[in-house]
Amino acid sequence: MSFRVAETHGRQTNPRPVRGVSRNVHVSERVARGRNVRDSERVECQSYKIESIGKRTRYYQAMIDTDSLLKGADYSELKESYIIFICLDDPFGFRLPAYTFERKCKENALVDLDDKTHHVIFNAEAYEKETNPGIRAFLSFVRNNTAGSDLTREIAAMVQTKKFEQTFINEYLAWNLHDKDVERRGRNEGQNTILALNKRLIASGRIDDLSRASTDSEYLAQLLKEEGLQTEA
Questions:
Q1: How far apart are CA 45 and CA 43, in angstroms?
Q2: Per-residue model confidence as pLDDT tens digits over 29-38
Q3: Which of 42 and 218 is assigned the larger pLDDT?
């Protein structure tokens, strides 16, 4: 299964005066089960235990469906949708790494409503019980902040890159806060220089150096000097 992230940190809106839906990631296209599917997904990360998670997914589903179906369109045109929560702690207390909810008949579980909605709540606290190696490594990364797979190392490197860009820009601008020319030059040169440093460190597997330099400006300057990337004020 693969995903293309269409937008992040957005807000689901509706022309009516109703509460909006915040989400961390919106995925509008996916490839699954050997076929291309046009659908809608919402992914939300939670660092604290939330109340009424069931009603929260219900509300999100309503807003997704309202947003995806144009006026006058047939109900059959509703997209298959996924709502995914990634929680640090177990929201239900049954120590499962994932809770998947799909609508079935209460009287006969073999009867599937087939409304194409899927609600998945991941519990990073129980990552060791996850049988899928990729998902287990990701949940472990969420829980312990330790990258143990290619994907999680890539995510960690992306996070560090963003931190480095802002750190370098802030340090550069501090040399002359009132000089707009220095501000513009600092942003351009800072971004280019830090990206060049990050590429070298990532290519050589120096993730620990990336992490240390994000909070240690002297070490950052040392790395820039070692790599011949130190700029002049």
A1: 7
A2: 544 444 444 4
A3: 218
